[in-house]
Amino acid sequence: MITPGNTSGSSEVTLTEIGGLLLGGKWWILTSTLLGLALGLAWALSATPIYRAEVLLAPTSERGQSGGISGLGGQLGGLASLAGMSIGGAGGREVEAVATLESRALTDQFVSDEKLLPVLFGDQWDAKQNQWLVDDPAQVPTLWDANKLFAKKIRTVEQDGATGLVTLSIEWKDPEQAAHWASELVSRTNERMRNRAISSAEKNLAYLKRQLEQNSIAEIRTAIYKLIESELKTSMLAQGDEEYAFRVLDPAVVPQEPVRPQKKVIVLLGLVLGFMLSSFAVMVVGFSRRR
Questions:
Q1: Which pLDDT score, from 0 to 100, does residue 56 have?
Q2: Range with lowest mean pLDDT among 13-22, 28-37, 51-60, 228-237
Q3: What is the DSSP letter of 150?
Q4: Three-state DSSP class for 198?
């Protein structure tokens, strides 16, 4: 218990005693505070700066698909389902686009094509000898390791629940690489989904043409023709639209300032910790001696 007065002969600790101990150990406190400041400054200056590049995206709608096919749901829903075509589901492409952007398959292909394993794990790579600095082959970084690193420390995908806009963030020590990776991942997502849509449309068209040859009922043939028209439209839109999954509203630029470490915060933290720890140590030693 701390009381503001003199309590000689009592076991209580007074503010006067605490002040006396701190004053008596002022040089220790000053030295330790300066040491904490120096350590914080050294840490801030030696830490690797990390930069963040961001891309603001708008998921595209399923143009030319949902309207025509949905209208045929009552007429030929079963046939469309057999062909693998969706009846409605206007938000399907948006969900698929975000999932593709975060997918392991996309990341693996990107790391392989860009030859990023030596870049991501540079501390284990000998650039002069062009080989890994590990004796055990089992310790050589793999695409699995790269994917974990991307998911945990490099890539962040956030979607605004109110607007639906998606922000892709890439954090890396090289600002130019961070901007390039962000742009390239978006481009590859668009390309992957565009190719997938074209392939799906071609498969559906082949199926519908077979059904057309096998049916002579006028109503069914009319419905099949409408489905064929819808799939042709989907294929043409996909082939002519480079931003098939995401529209880039705000492209990635090379960041000029790092997001971490926050040097001022680290230096201030070192200063405060140095003062607090040294003050506590002085009081503990002082009261121990008195006892």
A1: 97
A2: 13-22
A3: I
A4: helix
Question: Whole-angstrom Cα distance, residue 255 to residue 70?
Answer: 45
Burial class, 1, CB count within 10 angstroms (exposed 0-12 / middle 13-18 / buried 19+):
exposed
Contact yes or no for 48/155 (Cβ under 8 A): no
What ranges do the domains of the chain cover?
2-47+263-290, 51-250
**C-alpha to C-alpha distance for 290 and 285, rounded to whole angstroms:** 9
As beta bridge partners, residue 235 has none
d(CA 66, CA 234): 10
Angstrom distance (rounded) from CA 290 to CA 147: 59
**pTM more than 0.90:** no
- For residues 170 and 154, is the Cβ–Cβ distance under 8 A? yes
Architecture (CATH level 2) of domain 51-250: 2-Layer Sandwich (3.30)
How confident is the model over 255-266, as pLDDT tens digits?
999 888 766 776
Q: For 160, what's the count of Cα atoms within 13 Å in the CB-facing half-sphere?
A: 10
DSSP assignment of 21-90: HHHHTHHHHHHHHHHHHHHHHHHHHHSPPBEEEEEEEEEPP-TTTHHHHHTTHHHHHHHHHHHT--SS-T
How much is the pLDDT for 61? 76
Tell me the C-alpha distance between 214 and 218, whole Å. Answer: 12
